[in-house]
Amino acid sequence: MAVRLFGPAREAAGSERVAVEVPGGATAADVVSALEARYPALAGLLPRSRVAVNLEYVDGDTRLGPGDEVAILPPVGGG
Amino acid sequence: MKSFYEISEGPLSLEAAASRVADPSAGALAAFCGTTRNSFDGKDVDHLEYEAYRPMAERVMAEIGMEIATRWPSVTGIAIAHRTGRVDVGEPSVIVAVSAPHREAALAACGWGIDRLKEILPVWKKEVFTDGEVWRENQPRGGEPP
Q: What is the value of pTM for the model shown?
């Protein structure tokens, strides 16, 4: 599953888009766990980041479907 | 209610935002304009760099606008604009403008709007100093140093 990264997460991973393997019916939290395992550089940021699916903030127990746009949103700094 | 939401790569204009919310029934127009400061914690800021999750940010702006309309039903116009990319010292990075028949609603809605934006708008800010750089996270409401 492709995951979009922004701000400090993008910079830490060195890419604005990464891929992780998760089983069908995986949740947003499963994707975060897979990212933690695959990209140690994100370990510090992930626990403080939120997940967005299809442009909306979601909880960790949200189930993902094929074609969903998943994004990791570190603590924001707009304004 | 008039509404205008924009993530912009180019300079922001307070006047343009104000014109977006102007309404014959509005006796009040309140606006907040955030600009790049030249220092943070005593360090010299050269410029800021903003990055947005653009489609989500424009959607979140519209959600903030809808929340404002619910909380202050008299509001006649809302404009929210945020800049991306490099923003030099003194330049606006964000504008919130609200019109309403009376000042109480306009001022309250504008203040609430910028606070809400700083909590949930998917935008990230990098402070670039003369000798380094850091991603700066917004502090919880009321937690910002003066």
A: 0.94
Residue stretches of chain B with pLDDT short of 50: none
> Which residues of A fall within a CB distance of 8 Å from B126?
7
Among candidates B34, B33, B29, which has minimal Cα distance to B98? B29
Search chain A and give the residue with CA nearest B127: A77
Residue A48 confidence (pLDDT): 96
Asked if A4's CB is within 8 angstroms of B135's CB, the reply is no
Tell me the residue ranges of DSSP E strands in A1-79. Answer: 2-5, 17-19, 50-53, 56-58, 70-73
Residue B41: predicted pLDDT? 87
CB-based contact B55 A55, cutoff 8 Å: yes
Give the C-alpha separation, A74 to B122, whole Å: 9
For residue range A18-53, list pLDDT tens digits in order. Answer: 999 999 999 999 999 999 999 999 999 999 999 999
Phi, psi of B88 (to 5 degrees): -80, 165
The whole-angstrom separation of Cα B20 and Cα B96 is: 11
Angle at B4 between CA B3 and CA B7, to 5 degrees: 150
